[in-house]
Each structure stands twice: as structure tokens, then as C-alpha cells.
Design brief:
Length: 734
């Protein structure tokens, strides 16, 4: 088993599929290599299967096209031999399943007749005797050495298809999960099913006869395959989804049923009790294993999900075959359908497997497993078409390969895409509706209501049986306990959640659900982040307007209040209105040249000081001629306006002085007065000083306040653009 672990899943899958298709090709080749008369035969009385009642010739074609139909086919004899070498035909010769013949003597008689008929057909020309409307008609017919492919009946292809399904699906599971014993038991059951179906396809659809050797081989192969299917399925349900037995107990089924298999292989009699009794016993044991799994997993929704689809499909498939074929023969009643058609029941097992993997991740598989099947099918289709075009139509290799690629590209790939969409189809809410729900959650301010809406949203998406808080911190959504739960990290202030048992407990969470949840959680996280950023931006804008109105509007209104001149008062009020419009409508206004900005500030502050009788001086040194950014210009205005406002309102100072200097790409500014000071340690700063401190810190500068009996000094050191050091400077006189 370990050798498979290091093989690519595609390699393992193609190897098992190649073996299955190669075996099917050999069966087809053997079926068409038998002599062919061109007869379509039926029993006169379907309930009299083991008698010599006349056979109905319902149609004739090919070598026997001259025979009238419908008619009764009475006998067959070699054309060149004595008349008594012929054989009278009866319904016994059309028995589909030799091991259903109840008596040993009758079975030997049947095999002897089949051997004689097969020898006649291979011996050359034969004489067929038919009865049509009371008249006897003898017709010489030469059998064709090979049976045409088109003459093989539909039931033959049904059995071939069922035989392919077993190992192909089993190989698929093993290629993906080579370390799981349950996968290997499923493959073993598939191989047994293929043996039974392939063997039955050959002898149950024979035209008239098959040699004793071939009948003996394939009848025993059919019985052995059926028992091998039982071994695989019984042991599968002994360990999956819950392990019921351990160790040597798993050998009990192979030993018991294996004994019957060995007996069949080495030549045990082919009576029905040698095959049908162990088959019936195996099916009863299989039902018992499923029932035990159902009881032991009553509190495990994931195991119940497996049994809901996979277990019930096995009951329907294997149980349907036993009920329609095995039990009637054991009861002495003729089955209502042929064994070939009854093999269709086994397809239910693989339909259940496919649905189980798609919905419940059986064998821990998910959607990606189907992609492997599609790729493998594409490779086989390409190789098969190429071989058919070369061998059947005799096309050149290059032309055949090109045509095969065209068929795969233009026919198979679109079909594969449509199948993928259909397999992955879910009843998803339109994206615009999902986005509207996410937006509503993100815009909800109340945390309790926001969490309630989030829980309702996930309930609507996946219908989990339970939504609880996740016990651990999460970075991203993840599946828990093989899909029993889906953990979702909380975005923003929302809590981490755990969703248990999707669709009301009817299925597990799949990788598709995980991908879907990741996308939704990502959108929700971005929406919450954008909403938080929006709220933060609104709060910041409100704070900016408040600071600007306090720092700019306040000092100008104060200047207007203290101005005795009407013209100057009007000018200050008009300037205040202009500044107010600027603050509201143009928050990110452009900066200004530093020299011009300082000149404007000097004029404004000087006017305010002189209006209340404060002697004011302005000193500058080494001022670079540079353009300040808007934020830096706002800081400079706020510093001098807030300082002037405090001098006018609180200091009662006779003198004030502003100093501005530049060194090492930093602007040093200060505003001092000789008025009444205050205790910096105990004073509570107002909004203006707090705003100013924040503005300067945001620009990377430092701010300091010193105050005492001799007055107060506000000072700041602001970084300026590095290019300022290389620009020419200008000096401004005091």
C-alpha cells in the first residue's frame, strides 16, 4: 500500500482505469469471437426455463436471413454428418445462469448440450429446422466465425458498464486516499463486481451456445466475483464510518467467504446452493453491518450522513439484486427480470457514492476529487478516439490525433464544464442581496444588534443546527471535525463563531462552503473596516473644524470685539467669514510661501495687539524662501493666533514679542509676554492649547510652555522640508 502513497493520484487513477477498460475490451473481444448464426431466440414459455419446450425464432438476419420469422426453431444438425447427429432444441438451451439449474443431472445435461452445440457451430455448415404455420422448413446455414459488434444486445452493454463502474470508482477513491483501508475494501468490492458482471455478460448474452470450458470458467468467475464483492462491502462497513471490529476479527469474512471462492475456483459443483446461499448470507451480513453502523452512530451526524447516502444506496443496490434474482431462485420461483438487467441495481451504490462525496465528503474527499475524474476521463477519451480512428477508420496517425484533440476540445471540455457547474450547483442568494445584508450588518452601531444580525445571516446561508462562540482565536475560516463544524473569525468587534452541522443536520460543511464563507467573511471584514474608517474620518473632520474655528475664527472675532474702529471691525468680520468658508469648503487647502505667510501673520497679530494697547515686536532670522504644506501652514497660523488670543484674554501684558529663526531644517518659533503668568504644573490647558499640542505633534515638532511671575513663553520647533537647507534665505527686520 505504501508504494501507492508516493504515486501521483492521476497515475494511480489512470492505471486502475486502464486495467478496468482493458478487461472490458477483452470481454468484448471474447464475446464477438464466437460463431454467429444471426438468430434472435426467445423461450416459448418464460416460466419453463429448464425444459425442452420449443424455442421461438423471433428474428433472423445475416447468415440465417432466409429463415422465416417468427417461427419455432426445432433442431440443429451438422450439414455433413449423419442425421442422428443433430440436436433437438429447447428452452433449456437458453438458460442465462447455469448455476440456477436446481438438479445436478440437469446441469450436466445442459453443459453437454452446450458443448455439442458449440462444436457444431465451429464445425462449419449446419442445417436448421424450423416450423412455420405447421410447415417444416430446413435451411442450410454457414455460421460466421465472428459475431458482429452490433448484434450484442443492450443487456450485454449494461453489464459491461456496471463492471467498469466498480473498479473505476474504487480506483478513484484509492488514488486519493491510499492509506485508508476503507478505500481498499471499496476497490476490492468493485473488482468483485467487475468479475461478476464481465463473466455474466459473456455467457448470459450468448446467441445459442458456449463451450463447456468457457461456461464453466465464467460461471465460476461470476460466483467468485459476487462473493468477493461481499467480502469488500462487509469489511468496509465493519470499519467505516465507525470502526466496529479490530485486528483479527476483520479476517473472519475473508476466511468464510474466501473458502467458498476457493471451492468454486478448484471445481466445486455449480448447483445454486453452492453460490446463492453464501451470496444471500453475505448480503445479510452486509445489512447487519449497516444496521450496526446506524445504531453506533446515532449521536454522530457526520457518520449518519455517510449512512444516509452510501449505506442506503448499498442496501438498494445489493439488496435489490438479491431480492429480484437470488431469493426467487432460492424459493423455486423464476425471477421477473434477467440477471443482466438486475445488475443495474449495483449502479445505485456508485450513484450514492458520488452524491455522498459531493454532499458529505465521504472518504474525506471534496469537489477537487471530481476534477481528477474529469481529467482522467479526458485522457481516456483522447486515447480511445485516437485508437479508434486509426484502427477502425484507418486514418493517418497525425490526422487521427488532430481530430481526437478537436473532439475533446470542442465536445468534451464544454460538457465537462457543464457537468462541473451542475455538480456544484447550490441555491445561492444573489450577490447583490448578500452584499446588501453585509452592508446592513456593517452599518449597525449597536454591538448586540450587530451580532444578532450576523448570526441570522449565517443561519440563512448554511442553516446550521447550532451557532456558538468559537473556543479559539481564528485568523481565517476553517473546517473542524472533518466538516462537522465551520469556524468563522469575527471581523471588527464581532465575535468568532462556530457553525455546526449544515442544512439542518442533513450534511457536513464542504470545501465549497469553506471557500464561500471565506469570500463572505472577507467582504464583511472590508465593509466593517471601511465603515470604521468612515466614522473615524467623520470624527477627525469634526475635530479639525473645531480646532480651526477655535484657533482661527476665535482670535479674529476677539480682535473685532476689541477694535474701536468700525472699518477695522468690519474688515475683521469679513475676514472671519472668508476663513469660515475656507475651513468648511476647502479643508485641504494649499500651503503658502513661508516668508509671505510670516508677513501676513505679523500684520494680523500686530493689529490685534495694537488694538488693545499691547506693544508688540516681531523678530526673524535666516528664514528660507520655501513653500510650506497646508498642514505646516495651519500649524504656524494656529501657534501665533492661539498665543495672541491667550495674551489678549488672560495675560494683561504691556509687551509681547515673537521670535522666528531657522537652523538645520527646523523652524524655531516663540511668542512671549511680560504679563501675569500661571503655574504650568497645576493649570488645566484649554481646548486651544490641547489642539495646538496635537497639531505640532502631528507635524513631528515639539511644543513647550514656560510661565512665571515675569510672564509666559510659548515655543515650538517644527521640521521643514529637507530641500529648505539648499534654498536661498531672506532676512526680515524686526
Amino acid at each position: 500500500m505504501d508504494a501507492f502513497v508516493f504515486r501521483s493520484p492521476v497515475v494511480v487513477l489512470l492505471a486502475t482505469w486502464f486495467a478496468a477498460f482493458a478487461a472490458a475490451a477483452l470481454v468484448i473481444l471474447l464475446a464477438i469471437s464466437q460463431p454467429w448464426l444471426g438468430l434472435t431466440l426467445e423461450r416459448t414459455n418464460p416460466s419453463a426455463a429448464h425444459t425442452l419446450d420449443p424455442i421461438v425464432l423471433s428474428a433472423s438476419t445475416g447468415p440465417s436471413a432466409a429463415l422465416p420469422a417468427p417461427a419455432h426453431l426445432l433442431s440443429i444438425a451438422p450439414a455433413s454428418g449423419p442425421q442422428d447427429a443433430g440436436l433437438r432444441l429447447g428452452t433449456l438451451d437458453l438458460v442465462e445462469e447455469p448455476d440456477y439449474i436446481p438438479e445436478a443431472g440437469m446441469l450436466r445435461h445442459f453443459l453437454d448440450r452446450q458443448q455439442m452445440l458449440a462444436a457444431m457451430l465451429r464445425g462449419g455448415e449446419v442445417v436448421l429446422e424450423v416450423e412455420k404455420d405447421g410447415a417444416l422448413i430446413r435451411q442450410r446455414v454457414t455460421p460466421v466465425p465472428a459475431r458482429p459488434l452490433r448484434d450484442l444486445p443492450a443487456v450485454f452493454w449494461i453489464q459491461i458498464f456496471v463492471g467498469l463502474a466498480g473498479p473505476c470508482l474504487g480506483g478513484w477513491i484509492v488514488s486519493l486516499k491510499p492509506r485508508q483501508p476503507s478505500a481498499w475494501y471499496f476497490l476490492l468490492a468493485g473488482i468483485g463486481l467487475a468479475m461478476a458482471a464481465y463473466a455474466a455478460a459473456i455467457y448470459s448474452t450468448r446467441e445459442l451456445a458456449l463451450s463447456r470450458t468457457l461456461l464453466n470458467i465464467f460461471t465460476r468467475m461470476n460466483g467468485a466475483g459476487t462473493l468477493l464483492f461481499g467480502v469488500g462491502m462487509i469489511n468496509l462497513f465493519l470499519i467505516y464510518p465507525k470502526r466496529l471490529v479490530h485486528g483479527w476479527a476483520l479476517l473472519l469474512t475473508p476466511v468464510l467467504l474466501g473458502g467458498w471462492i476457493v471451492a468454486l475456483v478448484i471445481g466445486a459443483p455449480l448447483q445454486s446452493y453452492n453460490i446463492q446461499i453464501p451470496v444471500a448470507a453475505a448480503m445479510l451480513a452486509l445489512l447487519g453491518g449497516i444496521a450496526a453502523q446506524y445504531l453506533i452512530s446515532r449521536n454522530d451526524p457526520s457518520a449518519r450522513a455517510v449512512l444516509t447516502w452510501f449505506g442506503l444506496s448499498v442496501i438498494l443496490g445489493a439488496g435489490g439484486f438479491v431480492a429480484t434474482i437470488v431469493l426467487p431462485f432460492l424459493s423455486g420461483v423464476e425471477p421477473g427480470i434477467s440477471q443482466g438487467h438486475a445488475f443495474i441495481f449495483f449502479l445505485a451504490i456508485y450513484v450514492g457514492l458520488g452524491l455522498g462525496i459531493a454532499r458529505y465528503r465521504l472518504f474525506d474527499l471534496s469537489d477537487w476529487a471530481f476534477q481528477l475524474v474529469f481529467y482522467g476521463a479526458g485522457v481516456l477519451l483522447l486515447l480511445g478516439l485516437d485508437a479508434a480512428l486509426v484502427l477502425v477508420l484507418s486514418l493517418q496517425k497525425d490526422a487521427a490525433l488532430g481530430l481526437s484533440l478537436a473532439v475533446v476540445g470542442f465536445a468534451y471540455l464544454p460538457l465537462r464544464h457543464a457537468l462541473q457547474i451542475r455538480l456544484r450547483k447550490t441555491d445561492e442568494t444573489p450577490f447583490d442581496q448578500v452584499f446588501a445584508q453585509i452592508t446592513e450588518i456593517a452599518l449597525t452601531h449597536d454591538p448586540v444588534e450587530q451580532e444578532r444580525q450576523l448570526r441570522a445571516f449565517w443561519q440563512d446561508r448554511f442553516e446550521p443546527l447550532q451557532i456558538t462562540l468559537s473556543p479559539k482565536g481564528l485568523a481565517a475560516p476553517q473546517l473542524v471535525d472533518r466538516g462537522e463544524a465551520l469556524d468563522l473569525p469575527g471581523a471588527g468587534c464581532l465575535p468568532d463563531l462556530r457553525l455546526r452541522w449544515a442544512a439542518g443536520g442533513r450534511r457536513l460543511f464542504s470545501s465549497r462552503d469553506l471557500h464561500h464563507a471565506r469570500g463572505i467573511n472577507d467582504i464583511l471584514g472590508r465593509s466593517l473596516a471601511q465603515h470604521i474608517a468612515y466614522e473615524s474620518a467623520v470624527a477627525e473632520e469634526r475635530s479639525r473644524i473645531n480646532r480651526d474655528m477655535h484657533d482661527n475664527i476665535g482670535v479674529q472675532l476677539l480682535g473685532a470685539l476689541h477694535s474701536a474702529e468700525v472699518d477695522r471691525k468690519d474688515m475683521l468680520i469679513r475676514q472671519t467669514l472668508l476663513d469660515l468658508r475656507e475651513i468648511i469648503s476647502n479643508p485641504s487647502s494649499i500651503g503658502a510661501p513661508l516668508p509671505r505667510l510670516l508677513a501676513d501673520l505679523r500684520g494680523q497679530i500686530s493689529e490685534h495687539m495694537e488694538a488693545v494697547g499691547v506693544s508688540f515686536s516681531w523678530q526673524t532670522e535666516a528664514i528660507p524662501n520655501i513653500e510650506l504644506a497646508a498642514a505646516e501652514a495651519h500649524v504656524l497660523r494656529a501657534f501665533f493666533r492661539e498665543g495672541a488670543n491667550n495674551i489678549l484674554r488672560h495675560a494683561h501684558a504691556p509687551h509681547a514679542i515673537a521670535r522666528i529663526s531657522f537652523d538645520h531644517a527646523h523652524l524655531n518659533i516663540s511668542l512671549s509676554d511680560d504679563g501675569a503668568g500661571f503655574d504650568v504644573a497645576t493649570a488645566v490647558p484649554g481646548n486651544g492649547i490641547a489642539n495646538l499640542t496635537d497639531r505640532i505633534a502631528a507635524c513631528g515638532g515639539t511644543f513647550d510652555i514656560r510661565s512665571g511671575a515675569q510672564g509666559t513663553t510659548l515655543s515650538a520647533r517644527l521640521p521643514l522640508p529637507a530641500a529648505a537647507a539648499d534654498r536661498p534665505v531672506r532676512r526680515m527686520s524686526a
